[in-house]
């Protein structure tokens, strides 16, 4: 809301400055105080099909839960990949020692 042109555009869309924080919180699905383009596009595309505020609120809650599940799976996958890398490094190290003997 610091730039007048942004304020004018939001007012044109019917969003008042008081609603700006609420709008950001609704769009910030990952709840990391950042709004990346993927989140923005996903919400905008889905919002076109929603007819009631309850629909939008339900969608946002579902999106947050889905994001949390995906995040947990990604963290698990990263741990597994790191484990595989350590095992491969260990196996390569053993192989190198055998080659030297």
Automatic annotation (TrEMBL):
Keywords: Calcium. Coiled coil: none annotated. This is Calmodulin.
């Amino acid at each position: 809301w610091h730039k007048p042109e942004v304020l004018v555009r939001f007012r044109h869309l019917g969003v008042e400055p008081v609603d700006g924080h609420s709008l950001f919180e609704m769009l910030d699905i990952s709840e990391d105080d950042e709004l990346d383009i993927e989140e923005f596009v996903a919400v905008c595309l889905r919002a076109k099909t929603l007819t009631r505020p309850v629909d939008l609120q339900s969608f946002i809650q579902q999106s947050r839960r889905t994001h949390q599940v995906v995040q947990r799976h990604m963290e698990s996958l990263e741990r597994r990949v790191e484990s595989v890398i350590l095992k491969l490094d260990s196996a390569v190290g053993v192989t190198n020692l055998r080659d030297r003997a």
